Structure to design on (279 residues):
């Protein structure tokens, strides 16, 4: 089933991404080893994060209408099947519900959730078209999903390594997406790294981040946080990351960049699986 066959509001919130956020937070809670009823609160945390992500996707499209008419003309707002007012209302209600659930989890969860809501709004309105600042902001918000899940069971330290992995992987993907969207971003006068300094700068940034990420994946084994089962699986993930870092230099077509972006998503899932089996 194609995304265009979904209800317009579902298309707007990107249900697959919402499910990924929910699953990521639940996994973060599981990695923190919940006891008894704590697992129920982990699920509530996943619902909170999923709702905030849904709202963030809606407000992103609200501010991206001009750019999406070029880069994503199949999205609901450029097609005219959802109005700007409806998109803004969806952001308000979804984000509000996510914040309400986070308040049930504790002070730190509420603080992180509030940062997410505010950060997604500011990112979509002002930071998305900036050199690196927007990329780092959205990657940071992704990485915080792990402390968010771990705080529920009062073991935030167990969310550190997976959070850093998610941050770096998403930062590389964001840089890659900026190159992919360079034409639309330039038309909208967004000063992303590839718009201001060329596609090569975007590729170089993504390659450096991928290199740091590959090196970082070995650290938890060296310090004894994860076992050799983790190492076995994460080395396979590293092969995928290395492939992305090489392929983007040889084929800069939009089709290949979108394929590499998908591979990075798969690598993220693979990295989290490695952490799960090796922790």
């Amino acid at each position: 089933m194609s995304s265009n066959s979904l209800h317009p509001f579902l298309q707007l919130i990107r249900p697959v991404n919402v499910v990924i956020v929910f699953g990521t937070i639940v996994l973060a809670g599981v990695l923190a080893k919940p006891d008894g009823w704590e697992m129920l609160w982990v699920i509530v945390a996943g619902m909170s994060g999923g709702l905030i992500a849904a709202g963030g996707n809606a407000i992103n499209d609200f501010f991206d209408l001009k750019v999406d008419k070029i880069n994503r003309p199949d999205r609901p707002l450029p097609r005219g099947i959802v109005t700007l007012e409806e998109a803004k209302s969806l952001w308000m209600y979804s984000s509000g519900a996510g914040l309400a659930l986070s308040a049930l989890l504790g002070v730190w969860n509420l603080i992180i959730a509030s940062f997410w809501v505010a950060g997604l709004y500011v990112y979509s309105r002002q930071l998305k078209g900036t050199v690196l600042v927007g990329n780092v902001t959205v990657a940071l918000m992704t990485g915080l999903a792990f402390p968010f899940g771990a705080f529920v069971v009062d073991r935030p330290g167990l969310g550190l390594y997976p959070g850093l992995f998610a941050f770096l992987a998403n930062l590389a993907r964001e840089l890659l997406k900026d190159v992919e969207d360079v034409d639309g971003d330039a038309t909208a006068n967004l000063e992303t790294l590839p718009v201001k300094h060329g596609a090569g700068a975007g590729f170089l940034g993504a390659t450096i981040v991928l290199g740091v990420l590959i090196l970082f994946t070995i650290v938890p084994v060296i310090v004894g946080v994860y076992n050799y089962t983790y190492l076995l699986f994460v080395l396979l993930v590293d092969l995928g990351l290395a492939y992305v870092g090489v392929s983007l230099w040889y084929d800069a077509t939009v089709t290949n960049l979108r394929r590499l972006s998908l591979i990075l998503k798969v690598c993220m899932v693979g990295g989290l699986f490695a952490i799960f089996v090796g922790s």
